[in-house]
Design a protein that fits this description.
Blueprint: E1 9-16, H1 20-29, E2 36-44, H2 47-51, E3 56-66, H3 70-83, E4 90-96, E5 99-104, E6 109-114, E7 123-131, H4 135-144, E8 149-156, H5 161-167, E9 174-183, H6 187-194, E10 206-219
Antiparallel strand pairs: 1-3, 1-4, 2-3, 2-8, 4-10, 5-6, 7-9, 7-10, 8-9
Helix pairs in contact: 1-3, 4-6
Length: 223
């Protein structure tokens, strides 16, 4: 299989609820092979919306792995949002994937592929995984430290009884995943603030990590 210079970019978009399938159809028409749509909820940093209890909005989170077609797919999504800003307001970002596994149709094999050149957007994606019920607490301190908002998704852990014996941890199956986009200069302060949430003092309570965003745009009107 031919190695492509920009092989392996993860395109992640957050859009309004029930808009993920439409966005994915546009991405596939531009060359994407497929993707995953997940349910999340947006936590906006607007104080007025929070005061009115309107800062918690359901969203679709769309993930698709793009290859040489990444530029065309990204531009198609931006064009879609420009034509229907009220429906497709959200974010779109490209993340570098250092290595991934993909099924190669030509030889019916599963192969590992690396990536090519990298870009820098001046933004990073902070991903936080915590026990269920603590996502709002994490988002609150992150906003006070400079985050403008984020998306929270429900998930579940994979811990077993054997893990408890081996790692001496408490297994909590239900998890929450927070996705927070931040300018690079503010990441340190946000992570420091997140680390003060009591859940991180609990064994297995949560983890946080960052990834550089290669390209980042607001879809539709900026909130």
């Amino acid at each position: 299989m031919k190695q492509l210079s920009d092989y392996g970019k993860l395109l992640m978009c957050t859009v309004g609820r029930n808009k993920g399938d439409k966005l994915m159809a546009v991405a596939k028409a531009a060359g994407a092979r497929g993707g995953t749509v997940m349910l999340g909820r947006s936590k906006q940093g607007n104080r007025l919306l929070k005061a009115l209890s309107l800062d918690d909005v359901l969203q679709d989170v769309v993930l698709t792995l793009v290859r040489a077609e990444c530029k065309a797919v990204f531009e198609a999504i931006v064009d879609l949002a420009a034509k229907s800003p009220a429906q497709f307001g959200g974010t779109a970002m490209l993340l570098d994937v250092s290595t991934f596994l993909a099924h190669t149709v030509a030889d019916n094999q599963i192969n590992a592929h690396g990536t090519g050149t990298k870009m820098e957007s001046g933004h990073q994606l902070i991903t936080v995984i915590v026990n269920s019920g603590y996502g709002d607490d994490v988002m609150e301190v992150a906003r006070k430290a400079g985050a403008h908002g984020g998306t929270i998704m429900s998930a579940r852990g994979t811990g077993t009884a054997e893990d408890v014996k081996f790692f001496a941890i408490t297994i909590v199956p239900e998890k929450e995943i927070l996705l927070i986009v931040s300018q690079t200069g503010a990441v340190g302060a946000i992570l420091d603030a997140i680390g003060t949430v009591p859940v991180f003092s609990q064994p297995g309570g949560g983890i946080a990590y960052c990834m550089n965003i290669e390209q980042f745009v607001h879809l539709g009107p900026k909130q």
